[in-house]
User: What shape does this take?
Amino acid sequence: MSHHCISCGNDLSWIRAVPDPHYGLPVVVCPACDVACTRRKPPIFTAIRRFKAARRTAVTLLAQFLTLALLAGMSVTIIRGLAGDAASPATAFGAILYGMTNRLNEQVLDSGFEQDPEMIRTILVVFLLVSIGAGAWIRSAHGHLRLWVSVLCWFALIIGLLGIGYGEEALSRTMNMQNLHHLTISRELGAAAVFLFFTVPFVALGLPLGTRARKIWIKQYSAKAHKYRRKLRKHRMSNARHAAR
Ligand SMILES: [Zn+2]
Assistant: This one.
C-alpha cells in the first residue's frame, strides 16, 4: 500500500491511522509537517472488495436457483410420470394406498403399474423426500417471507409447470387430430392433482426443518459479526489511548 502526505509528499504508509472521534475516519498525521489527512486506499482495493461482494451475491443466487430448479424439476417429473401410469384419480389413490400399506389393490393391478408395483414404492419415497426438501428450502432460503406466501409460491410454480407441460401435450395432440385422447389427458390431470395434493403434508413437514436450519445459520452469522465488532471496538480504544498519550 502506498500513501503520501498531501502537503510535503512524505511517505505515510508506515504510520498507523487513528480513527478520529467524530466520524471514525482513519486519520494520519504527517510527522514532518503536522498536516493531518485521511488514509487513502488505492481504488483498486475498493474495486476488489466490491467484486468479491458481488461474486458472493451471485454465487448465493445461483445456488438458490439451482436448488429450486432441482426440487421443482424432480417434483414435476415424478408427478407427470406417476400420473401417466395411473391415468385416473382412482388409480392414483390406489397407488398411494399401495405405497403406504404394501398391499396390492385392484386399482394398481389394473393400471400401468401392474408390471412392476415395487417401483411405485421407490418413486413415492423419492417423491416424499423431494417434498420435505422443498418445504425445508422454502423456509431456510425465504424465512423472511410470510409462510403462506412462500408455500403458495411453491405450489403455484409446480401447478404452473404442470400446466405448461400438459397444455403443450394437449396442443400437440389437437394438432395431430387425436381427439380421442382428450379424455385421457383430463383423467391424467386428475391423477396429477391427487399426487400433488399428496405432497402437501410432506412439504409442511419440511417447513420446521427449514426454520431450524435458518435459525442456526443466522446465529452463526451474527456470532461472527459480533466477534468482529468487539475486535474493532477494542482496536479503536487502544488507538485512542495511544493518541491521548
Ligand atoms: Zn507532510
